[in-house]
Each structure stands twice: as C-alpha cells, then as structure tokens.
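Q: I'm writing up a methods section and want to include an example of the input and output format. Could you take the sequence below and give the corresponding predicted structure tokens, formatted cleanly so I can copy it straight into the document?
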Amino acid sequence: MEQRAELGVWPHPPLPYADVLRHLAHLLATETSFPRSWIAWQAGQPVFEGGVIERQGPHRFLYRAQRADAIRPQVLAETTEVLFPSAEAAAAHYLRWDLHLPGDLDGWKVVA
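A: Here is the clean output for your methods example:
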C-alpha cells in the first residue's frame, strides 16, 4: 500500500462487483482454465488448494476445488466439482467462494 501511495495511485475508488464479474466471465469464456490449470492431487504430493474453472464448451464450465487435511497437509481432505451452464454463473461462484467478494481483493475494495 505504501508503494501505491508514493506512486499516487492510492487511495483509489472501489471496484464495482458487476465489473469484476463481467471481466472474469469474459476471461472464462475465452481461456481454457482460470486461474491456472487443474492439478489433481497424487499421494505424497502437496495439495494445490483453491478453485479452478475449466471451460469445457460454450455452455459447460467445470469448477473444481480441493483442500488438504488441516492436521496432515499432505493428505487430501476434500474435492468438490460443480458444473455451470455459463461463464457468468461460474465466475459468480468463484468470486464468492474463492475470493470472498464483495469485500477486499488485495487492498482493492470490491463493492456490490
């Protein structure tokens, strides 16, 4: 934040949630996956936590997430898969459950 203030780009106005949603939906409609490719857990390997959305067709967006066991981080605790019919629906799910928006996004306020 200090560097942003020194550069004169802080404070900045809040970002409208609808704009963030629209931007992410556009990315999902044009990219193969977001925010990275899916890495399925393999025994003895680290668990790559967090959600990934794969575009599998024009009306097929697969959200996947996995998390490690809280006590044994090398052990898979849970995997989730949810299929969405649109980029907008997948984006809304990701923004809510992975980024907890509206709210704070790395110092940027995202408001409803």
